[in-house]
Amino acid sequence: MLEKEYDGSWDKIKRVLGGKGAGLAKMYSLGIPVPPGYTITTAGCNKFIALGNVFPPGMEEQCLSALKRVEELTGKVLGGTERPLLVACRSGAYMSMPGMMDTVLNIGLNDVTAQAMIKLTGDARFVYDSYRRLVQGFGTIVLNIPDEAFEEPLDEYMKEHKYAYDNELKAEDWIRITDIFKGVIKSQTGSDFPQDPYKQVELSTKAVFLSWNNKRAFDYRNVEGIPHDLGTAVNIVAMIFGNMGDEDSGTGVAFTRNPSTGNKEIYGEFLFNAQGEDVVAGIRNTLPLQALKDKLPQCFDQFIENSKRLEDYFKDMQDIEFTIEKGKLYFLQTRNAKRTGLAKIKTSVTFCKEGLIDKMTAIERVTPKDVDSLLHPMFNDSELEKAIKTGKLFAEGVNASPGAAVGRIFFDADKCKEMADQGMPVIMVRRFTKPDDVHGMIASKGLFTAEGGATSHAAVVARQFGIPCIVGASEIQIDMKNLTVKSRGILLKEGDWCSVDGTTGKIYAAKIPTKEPSLDDQKELLELLDWCDELREIEGVRENPNGPTRGLQVWANSDKADDALKARSFGAKGIGLCRTEHMFLGARSEILARFIIADEEEVKTKALNELQALQTSDFEEIFTAMTELPVIIRLLDPPLHEFLEDLVSLTEKVATSRALKIDDEKNEIMLSHVKKLHESNPMMGLRGVRLLIVKRELVKMQVSAIFNGACNAKGKGFVPIPEIMIPLVSHKGELDSLQPEIEELAAVILKERGVEMEYKFGTMLEIPRACVVSGNLAKSAQFFSFGTNDLTQMTFGFSRDDAESGFLLKYINDGILPENPFKTIDQEGVGSLMKMAVKSGREERPMMDIGICGEHGGEPKSVEFCSSIGLTYVSCSPFRVPIARLSATHAIIPLLRKMKKN
C-alpha cells in the first residue's frame, strides 16, 4: 500500500516514515518477523516543533487508535493487569543518524504491571531488569537527568556486591536498583516516576521528537550536511525481550558484509540475556555471531536467510538489529549500513559485479570522502616493528575502523574538541562512548575504548567519519580522577603522545612516523576509477557547441618529476600547473638572489646560466615522466622579494650590527635591494606578466630551459607536450608584448636542435578584467587556465592570507557567507566571471582548452561546477586526483542517465 501510495519511490516513503519506520513496513511486507507497532510521521514531528512542542490537533486520537490496534495484534493491553503490553518509543529520521537521537524502552511498566509481568513470566529478575531500564532511560531522555546520576549508584552497588557485569545481578538486586533509580528521579525533579503508562508514551514521544534538535544531532547534521528541517519519525512498537534468560533470549546487531573491509561475510555481535542498548552502547563485551549459531542454530539460519533477502531487495549492505525472545526471532530494524570508505568502495564494486547495480550506481554510492579516507597517511612498518621491540606496544583491541592516527590523549569529549580547535592532534580515550561524545569524536584524529565491540557506538560513528578506532581494549585501566590510562606497565597521562593503528587494533605509547599512501593495493578503488574514466569518455555527455562534449579530464599540479609520476599513477591525464618558482627553493634561491641583487651584467648572466642548466634538467625529467601528456608550465609568477630575506628580520640584523658597530656589508647591501623591491601590496604589484615584461631575461632563461628540456626528452624517445602559461594577464597588450618574443625563441631552439614538437601558449585567468575581456585575449592565447585562488581574492577584495585567519571564519559562522570561497568556488560571483570567460573565449576560439588550476580543482562541489560550465579539465594536487576523477564523474551521471533513457 505504501509503495503504491508513493508511486513506488522508496525515497518518498522514507521521507514520510523515516528510515526505521519504512524499514519495518518493508520487512513486514516481505514476510520477515517484526514486532507490531505504528509510526508517527516526520511531518508530525515538524508540526509539533512548529507549534511550540505541542501535539498537532488530532494526533493523540490517531495514536490511541493505533495503540488499540497493536493491543489487538498482540493480545495484550497497555497498563493491563493480566497481559500487560510494553512498547518501545524509537526515533527514525529519513537519513540515518546512528545514536544521535533517542529511544525509550519498556514503556508501560509500573509497580502494578511489574507484578503482572512477574506472574505471567515467573521471572522477577527479567521484569525488574526491564523496569530499571525504563526508569533510567526515561530519566535521562525524557527528564534530562545526567547519565552519571544513574550510572554512579549502579557502579557503586555492583562494586559493593562484587559484580563484574550487569547480567550477574539477581532479581532482588534489580528491585533495589529500581528503587534507587526512582529516588534519583525524585531528588532531581521533585516528582515521582510517572506510573500512568499512557503518560509514559506521551512524554516519551515528545522527548523523541525533541531529540531531533538536541546538540549532538544538530552537530552531526552540520558535519554530514543533512538538512535541519527533515524531522524525525517516531515508532511505537511492541517490546521484544532479549533479557528473558541466558539460554533462549538475546539481542544482536549485524551487517550483511564486513563494514570495515567490505568483505562478503556476515559481521556482527550478540549478547544473551540482554536488550539492544547493551550491544550498541558497548557496556558489555559482546560475543561473535558464532555463539548464536552454536546455541540457537535454527534462529541463526533464519537470521541469515532473511538478511540475504533484505540485501537482495535493497541491493545494498544492510545494518540489522534483531532480538530473540524465548527462541523466537524478530527483526527490529534494517537500514543501508554505514561503513568505512574502503568498505563502501569494495561493496559498490562487488554489488555491481554481482549484477545487483550498474556502474553508475556503484560510482554514485562512493563519496569523495570515501576515496579521501584511503589517501591518508599510514604507519611505516619498520617504525611499528621498532616500537614493538622497544616495548612501546601499549594495548590491543578490536580493529573497528582502519587507518593511522597520531596525537595527544584526552579523556573528555569537550576537552578533545577544545584542544583540536587549537590545532592539536587529539586521540580520544574512553571506557565507552555515548552519543553525547560525538562532537569530541569528530574532532579527534583517532580513538580507543576499553569496552565495546565492532558494532558499538564508538565503532559505528568512527567508521562513518573515517576515524581510526580501536574498541574493547579490555587490558587498559582508565583513571578518570587522575586522567591517566595504564596498560602493560606503561602509564600515559593526559596530553601524552600515542599512536592508534585502527587497521591492526594495536595502540602504541609512542609518536610513530607515517608514510604516504599507495593505490597499488587498492584493487577495487582502481577499478572504480577506471569505470569513472570510461563513463567520462562517452561522446555527447556534455552539450557544448564550441567546447568538449566528453566529461572533464583530471590533471595535476606538480613541480617535480616524482610528484608527476605520483600524479600519473593516480590517473592524472596531464600537468595543469607546474609552478616554476617552486624550482628555485632551497639552495637554488641563493642563485636567484645573486641575479636579483647584482649590478654587473656578468654576474647576472652567470646566475641565469646556472638556473637555466638546473631548470633544463628539471623540465627534461618532468616531460619524461609525463610523456605523451600535456604539461602546462607557468612562467615565474611571485614578486622577486619573496626570494630574498624578509624585510623585518633583515632590518633587525642590520640594526643590531650597527648598534654593535660591526661591519655587515653583505646584509647592508641585501637590505638596500629588499627596500627597493618592497611593495605595499606585493600580490597586486610587480609579479606575473608584469615581472616578465620588466625582467625579460628571466623569460628567455625559462623558455630556453623548457624547450631544451623538451628536446632532451624527445631525443631519448619520449614525447613531450609543453604548454607555456603567462600568469596574471589583464590586458591583451601584455600578451602581445611577450608572446611573439617567446614564440620566436622557441622556434629558434627547435630549429637549432632539429626537433619538431607540438606546443601551445596560453594564459592564466586570475584577474576579473581578464574574464571580462577573455574574447580579446583568446585572439592571442591558445588556452586558458583559471587561477581561482587569485580570482577569488580579486573578486571579493579579500586578502586570502589575512581573511582566513581573521574575519572570514566569523562570516561563515554568522551565515554572512554560506561557505569559504577559497575552498569552494563562489558560483554566484567568481563563477559568473568564469562562465563569461568561457563563453567569450570559445566564441573567438572554438574548442579551445579551458581548465582550472587553483586549489578548487580538487574540491568536489567546485569540480562539478567546472563540469557544468564546460571546462576541459580540472587540475589539483596529486593526492586529490582520485577524488577529482570521482567528482567529475558524479557531475555527468545525471546526463548519462538522461542519454540512456532517450
Task: List strands and helices in order, with pairings.
Layout: H1 2-5, H2 10-29, E1 37-40, H3 42-50, H4 59-74, E2 77-78, E3 84-85, E4 87-93, E5 103-107, H5 111-121, H6 124-142, H7 148-160, H8 171-189, H9 197-210, H10 215-224, E6 232-238, E7 250-255, E8 267-272, H11 276-280, E9 287-288, H12 289-295, H13 297-314, E10 318-325, E11 328-336, H14 341-353, H15 359-365, H16 368-373, E12 378-379, H17 381-389, E13 393-396, E14 398-401, E15 404-410, H18 413-421, E16 426-430, H19 438-443, E17 446-449, H20 457-465, E18 469-471, E19 477-479, E20 484-487, E21 490-493, E22 497-501, E23 506-508, E24 514-515, H21 523-536, E25 553-557, H22 561-569, E26 575-579, H23 588-597, H24 601-625, E27 630-634, H25 647-659, H26 665-677, H27 689-694, H28 696-715, E28 721-726, H29 732-753, E29 760-765, H30 768-772, H31 774-777, E30 783-786, H32 788-796, H33 800-803, H34 808-813, H35 830-844, E31 849-852, H36 860-868, E32 873-876, H37 881-901
Parallel strand pairs: 2-3, 15-16, 16-17, 17-18, 25-26, 25-32, 26-27, 27-28, 28-29, 29-30, 30-31, 31-32
Antiparallel strand pairs: 1-6, 4-5, 4-6, 7-8, 7-10, 8-9, 10-11, 12-24, 13-23, 14-18, 15-22, 19-20, 20-21, 22-23
Helix pairs in contact: 5-6, 6-8, 7-8, 12-13, 14-15, 14-21, 15-21, 21-37, 22-24, 23-24, 24-28, 25-26, 28-29, 36-37
